[in-house]
Amino acid sequence: xxxxxxxFLVPLGLTLATPPVLAFDDDFEINDINLSTENFLxxxxxxxxxxxxxxxxxxxxxxxxxxxxxxxxLAFTQTELKLENALSEYVNIRLEVEQExxxxxxxxxxxxxxxxxxxxxxxxxxxxxxxxxxxxxEMDLGVALIWGRRPWNYIRFEYLEVDSLYNKKNxxxxxxxxxxxxxxxxxxxxxxxxxxxxxxxxxxDKPLELVDPDNNxxxxxxxxxxxxxxxxxxxxxxxxxxxxNGFTLDKSSSQxxxxxxxxxxxxxxxxxxVRGMGKPYELRVGTQYDHISNDIRDFITGSDEHxxxxxxxxxxTTAYHPLNEHMAWDLGLYVGQVEEKRxxxxxxxxxxxxxxxxxxxxxGFEYSSSDGRNSLQFNISLNLDDPINDPGDGGAIxxxxxx
Length: 403
What we know:
About 10% of the residues lie in helices and about 60% in strands. With about 400 residues, the chain is mainly beta. The protein has an 18-stranded antiparallel barrel. The chain is globular, with a radius of gyration of 23 Å.
């Protein structure tokens, strides 16, 4: 497979990648996680509403960005760009980039460029993909097999060699992969009987090992993630549905003066009912459960070893109402039970526990194009669980455009 990719993709100049959540994202650090108790409510409060999500799912091209204040120092950011151009019924060219950041600082990823080929102009196809990078050691190269065509009723399997040329083209230092990173992904999207929508993604990063002989260093990484959406539409303006997404991540960094391991797990489950999409009032009620854990082992400074987790069970309701052709207000109420705990393995006196009720009220103003395909929204939040001492609770700006 590696010989095939290098023989065909590199000469063709297809320096083409997958979104970072689906492949190793060049994060070589051990990430300590320390969230604020209201953070999962913050993220939920400023997500795109359901009708905007459907615009996004139904489009082949678009871009959107969402910036949410989590606390005075950190923000949740969501950035997505997808562009598709059909050269003919046989060939499509796509460009994609995607990132969500909330638990650790991540570099912005290189974009994906993908050439989809349907040899018989039907539903059976394959694609060549990779990342455009000035340093060839950062290029990812891959292939995919496809049945069907985006945006719905398709399934594809992707095989990606991350940093495919690293060992041959690394001219910056003496590091090399003793186990080279490979990412595999299965994704699909289907609509059934005009009432059901299903979207899913499952990916796995096989174990990698990066060796640095100058400081006796070895970095190891493996990961997997998943996403599932299942919606039932009893009517065109109503949805009863569920989304599940999460990831597992295992990293270790060993070098002179450092020997650490990290294991991170995250899962989020959202169950919702939406009514009135495209009508004067779009209403949504739901409940969401989020759980993140992060266990760090330090074999040199044992006093820093700890287990961390935070879980939030929240209920929420939102209401969206257009005022005229371009303007609308969007309100939301979110209440959650939050438990956050950090346990130090060698010194229990340093343990921390937060067990709180968090509540917030979000007020939003949207300005959109008359056809609804472009939306700019500003949000502010009020802290309902401590309105006297801490009335303000951040805000957000989001934009979405599909075309």
